[in-house]
């Protein structure tokens, strides 16, 4: 949750795009089976990192960000704890 508050977005804004309650609704709607906090962090990270590219492609839907977050968390080629490693080695300051 601290990461989300400090996130610097590609569009120049700060903080996560969605609140936990919003990402939980999306997670449940799309039947994503994962830790709700992980999904919340991944969805906001995807928005933060890729919002400019997604906007340029006119593809900025909640569903797209949910699919991207799920794909990130479900990456079968990645070592375990991918999101935690991303935070510690890339995002943490």
Structure description:
- By secondary structure, the protein is mainly alpha-helical.
- It contains 5 helices and no strands.
- It has helices spanning 2-6, 20-29, 36-56, 62-73, 82-91.
- α2 (20-29) crosses α3.
- It starts with a helix and ends with a helix.
State the helical fraction: 55-70%
SS strand fraction: under 5%
- Given the C-alpha coordinates, what overall shape results? globular
Order of helices and strands: HHHHH
SSE-based structural type: mainly alpha
Query: How far from one another are the termini?
Result: 15 Å
**Strand segment count:** 0
Name the poorly predicted regions: none
In oligomeric terms, what are we looking at? single chain
Radius of gyration: 12 Å
| Mean residue pLDDT | 90
Chain-wise SSE layout:
Blueprint: H1 2-6, H2 20-29, H3 36-56, H4 62-73, H5 82-91
């Amino acid at each position: 949750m601290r990461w989300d508050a400090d996130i610097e977005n590609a569009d120049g804004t700060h903080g996560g795009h969605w609140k936990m309650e919003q990402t939980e609704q999306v997670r449940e709607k799309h039947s994503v089976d994962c830790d709700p906090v992980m999904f919340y962090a991944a969805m906001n990270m995807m928005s933060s990192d890729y919002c400019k590219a997604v906007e340029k492609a006119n593809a900025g839907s909640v569903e797209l960000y949910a699919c991207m977050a799920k794909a990130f968390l479900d990456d079968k080629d990645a070592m375990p704890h991918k999101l935690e490693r991303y935070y510690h080695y890339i995002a943490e300051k």
